[in-house]
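Q&A log
Question type: sequence-to-structure
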Amino acid sequence: MRLQTADEALAVLEYLAHAPGPQTLGALSRELGLTKARAYRILATLRRRGYVIQDPFSRRYAFGPACAQLTLAARAAVNLSASCSEALRWLWRTTEETVYLAVYEGAQAVVVDKLDSPRPVLAASSLGRILPLHAVSGGKVLLSSRPDDEVERLIDGHLASFTDRTLNGRDQLWKEVRKIRAQGYAVNREGWRDGVSGVAALVRWGLEGEPAAAMAVCLPEIRFRESFQHLRRSVIKAAAMASEALAPYGTRPSSIPVPGGIR
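Response status: OK
Response body:
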């Protein structure tokens, strides 16, 4: 089923994308077979949303900043998963546990890449899965990366309790956030699912760039207890490798080396 208004709005954007320069209302309406009144209404809506700008002197229309922002966001999403894939695979080979990459989206953590453990007993994950910020290691590390006022907003009010080990009190979570910031990694001990634990570290757009994602490993609690130190070191190293891989898309001071290399 064709949605006429949406179709016409997209046609306007496509026309502006291929036009040699800013266009007049008359030219747009003629080229697209729209009345001037209808073309004006579509342009006015796109202008309010930032997808179109209008020169105040010539009155001509051109692409707005929102179009560029969408393009950059799409490129960033592709660059994020592609650039982090080698580090994620290294973490998977090193730990032989389920590993995943999650991003902060709408006050939640969303899994954008993952590899399941080859072991017969595993903690599985899935692409696109939404994870609570306060109850999993990847979510906690993303929570800790937010500004203080945003953390306060995110933990203010009722947060779900998934197990009897879920941290969901305001004071508990502030203590956890400060601890994660100080030590550089987050730990989950059966806070979301009984018998499943994990550890995560923050990936940045360059080693000292803005927060980009969380890289995490999750596994049965019994194996977590036995191998925590190895898991902790591995996930911190993998997150650093991923951050270095993202340096071309962010800011990375050349004086800070990545600890070790891929072996």
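Response note: DSSP finds eight helices and eight strands in the chain.
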